[in-house]
Amino acid sequence: MASDTERSTRMPAAATGSPGWIASLGGPTAGIAIATLLLFAICIVVAPQSLSSGALSGTVPFAAILALVALGQTLVIQQGGIDLSVPGVVSLSAVIVCYFANGGPGGSPDLVPALALAFGAAALAGLISGILVSRVSVAPIVATIGMNALLYGVNISISGGTPVAIPLEISAFVNAKLFGLSLLAYLALAVAVVLIFIIKATSFGRVFEAVGANERAARAAGIATARYKTAAYIGAALLYAAGGIFLGGLMQLPSPQQGDNYLMPSIAAAVLGGTSLFGGRGNLAATVIAAIFLTQLQQLVLTTGASVGVQYLFQGAAILIGLGVYGVKFKDLSRLFRVRNRSYC
């Protein structure tokens, strides 16, 4: 019996991706990179203090955490879905580590089991969301917002809404530096490189992109599409959990609602990075750069004393712009205009 990889070769080349995967890092990557450089140039003129060593030292870890969360969101969006359970997973993962690593009722005062429990809970949440979307045909927005509510319920039942200090080992790790740069930056970069390699240079990744680009064609080719869609939600949830645990380390006394601020930015980073909200097209490298852009934008807003509402306006505008730039089929529009122009002649 043919494997999913063999079946994917029967699909059009456009759906399975180009073998020149390094070249595919251009386009949106270059665009968001230029926008980020322009933002830094504006910061130099408008608010140079936002680029001071102290400001950058505090910004980089948060940019790395947003990059991890946004990479997970990108995987889901690339499969034509959207994950609204980000706040729940980010918050619950930190709460589990804080509570059980400190020996709460039923827990063991040991960090490793607490971490395993946090990632296991995240994987289970992703598995359930993936099954609901891929096998039960529940709309992604409905499945994940329901999962988010469930996770918040578990969160409150564990913590009672009372913050608990994060283990010192995690705080020490997230605040550590190598060559003057936060370890989280190296970690986020390493995760991005591994994911890019898997998606762009492996048979699994080619099938994954094919399913996202055209699920109906992939299913007709005999590919078990549900596996890949479910894998996207599981992988995304694990990345959210990592981001939540590291965020807890930075906050030291993480709030049970700490994940609330990561839903919109994760979607905005994915869209700014060129990931189509209609699925198929995704750019993980550009997502990481977009996370840097959004984090520095937040720093600029805070430094200038502007309202936090300005930040939300930019995030919303980013999603709308992404929908317009990456969602509209310009070839179809140009063909339509040519037909109309001929009819007037």
UniProtKB/TrEMBL annotation:
The keyword Transmembrane helix applies. One of its GO terms (molecular function) is transmembrane transporter activity. The chain crosses the membrane at residues 21-47, 59-77, 84-102, 114-133, 145-166, 178-199, 231-250, 262-279, 308-328. It is found in: Cell membrane. Keywords: Cell membrane, Membrane, Transmembrane, Transmembrane helix. This is ABC transporter permease. One of its GO terms (cellular component) is plasma membrane. InterPro entries: ABC_transp_permease. It is a multi-pass membrane protein. The keyword Membrane applies.
